[in-house]
UniProtKB/TrEMBL annotation:
Protein name, entry field: Putative Alpha-glucosides-binding periplasmic protein AglE
Organism lineage: Bacteria, Bacillati, Actinomycetota, Actinomycetes, Kitasatosporales
Keyword Signal annotated: yes
Residue segments, region Disordered: 429-460
Superkingdom classification of source: Bacteria
Biased composition (Gly residues): 434-448
Signal peptide: 1-35
Key word Signal present: yes
SUPFAM superfamilies xrefs: Periplasmic binding protein-like II
Keywords carried by this UniProt record: Signal
Length: 460
């Protein structure tokens, strides 16, 4: 009998090998899946929505190298209200980005923030006295330059081509819950330019009366600069957004900038560098093109404001700072990464040219678009002194009262009304810790000493 040809070992070996490979692959997949589930997600709460929020979120995703925690971003226009609600619910974000030094100082003193290892970075991130120890509690992510005037290239004015003509100022005071800040920017810039950084810093930190000649004079100078206005014009400015009005003929109506809002019929706008996104099309090296009315030029506001030339090199600035609200050590590491060179490079790459952020250091990538490039040069070297937005350095209660007072004064700039408003602001100043002189440790005015508000541009 002939036996059948059998190769049992050889026949079964490939099957066993294949089965083993499949089991190893399945184990690897299961292990990887568990690892992904074990990766903790850190939440960043911030103010950027729309295209700005998209760019920041894209940077955050690229910053995630896949080896540690994952990051998620939640942007909102109601940042303060959202953060307060989360804190009250006992569920704060790991990291929050705020533009108010006054709010951040209150959170630090209320033991809501985790101290950082940063040595401090005035005027963006000064050291704060908490429980007898001076520490840094936040770091700047992006910054901004104020003390600028945008104007139509063909317009005449103090800094314009022909000179002598009185600027017709664009004013849009509406900004949802924070309406009034375009007016406080005017007052702050006037205090800085007329009286210098030292007086400005004392006022911003609660050490100078609102009824002092230096502060009161800034309010009256603003009214004089704006000139006579009809009730219709005043009402329009109070209800018009700082971004201007949309073009009703456009297929997709969007803000077009105050200079291009025909309802206002104005030639000059006092506004921060961020507004350049509304005048984004390049027009040479000195400005941005603003639609059918021609080009838009940007100049330092000192060329338009009354005050000593000695203070021309001082500029008002603002910033968005990141602070750690959770006890997770990984959140502190994230803040360090967000304020580092890699994150700044990625953010610059992801943002549209007219929305690229300004960063505090001369070595950081900066906007190069018209207007943005000039502002970046001032921020990182040409300016002598940078002073943080005074209202954002004040305690929130005083800042909010300042906003309301500006709206009331804009409607009625009489001397009696001004005296009443400044008296009310002095009352709030006293209630929030203001003093009539410097106090040890910088304990007045929300906890910031005067030397924390103004500083030279930074190299890093």
């Amino acid at each position: 009998m002939t036996r059948p040809h059998r190769r049992p070992a050889l026949a079964r070996r490939p099957a066993r090998t294949a089965l083993a490979c499949c089991l190893l692959l399945l184990a690897a997949l299961m292990s990887g899946g568990c690892a992904d589930r074990d990766r903790e997600t850190l939440v960043v709460l911030g103010p950027w929505t729309g295209a700005e929020g998209v760019a920041f979120e894209a940077m955050l995703k690229r910053l995630d190298d896949g080896t540690g925690e994952t990051y998620t971003y939640k942007g909102t226009r109601s940042l303060r209200e959202t953060l307060v609600a989360q804190l009250e619910a006992g569920d704060p974000p790991d990291v929050a980005v705020l533009n108010s030094l006054g709010e951040l100082t209150e959170y630090a003193r209320g033991n809501r923030l985790e101290p950082l290892d940063s040595p401090g970075h005035p005027p963006w991130a000064p050291r704060v006295d908490v429980n007898g120890s001076r520490r840094t509690y936040w770091v700047p992510l992006k910054v901004d330059l104020k003390s600028l005037v945008w104007s139509k290239s063909k317009s005449k004015g103090k800094a314009g081509g022909s000179g002598g003509a009185r600027p017709r100022w664009c004013v849009g005071m509406a900004s949802q819950a924070t309406s009034g800040w375009p007016g406080t920017d005017w007052i702050e810039d006037l205090v800085l330019h007329r009286s210098g950084p030292g007086t400005y810093a004392r006022w911003a930190t609660g050490r100078l009366s609102w009824r002092s000649p230096e502060v009161r004079g800034a309010w009256t100078a603003w009214a004089e600069l704006l000139g006579e206005r009809s009730k219709k014009s005043v009402d329009l400015s109070l209800t018009t957004s700082y971004e201007g009005t949309p073009d009703p003929k456009a297929a997709r109506p969007a803000p077009r900038g105050l200079l291009n809002s025909p309802e206002l019929d104005c030639t000059h706008e006092h506004q921060s560098a961020f507004i350049r996104y509304l005048y984004a099309n390049a027009n040479g090296s000195g400005g941005a093109k603003g639609g059918s009315d021609g080009g838009v030029r940007v100049d330092p506001s000192a060329r338009f404001l009354p005050g000593p030339a000695a203070h021309d090199g001082a500029y008002e600035v603002a910033g968005d700072m990141a602070a750690v609200f959770s006890g997770n050590p990984a959140a502190r590491e994230l803040v360090e990464r967000l304020s580092g060179s890699a994150a700044r490079r990625l953010w610059h790459e992801e943002a549209e040219p007219e929305l690229r952020p300004f960063f505090p250091g001369a070595g950081d990538p900066q906007p190069t678009d018209p207007g943005g490039g000039e502002a970046a040069a001032l921020l990182t070297g040409k300016a002598d002194t940078l002073c943080f937005d005074a209202s954002d350095a004040m305690p929130p209660a005083l800042r909010d009262a300042f906003h309301r007072a500006v709206l009331r004064y804009f409607r009625d700039p009489s001397g009696d009304r001004l005296d009443t408003l400044l008296g009310q602001l002095d009352t709030v100043r006293a209630e929030t810790g203001g003093t009539t002189g410097d106090s040890p440790g910088g304990a007045s005015g929300g906890g910031l000493p005067p030397d924390a508000v103004c500083a030279p541009p930074s190299d890093g």
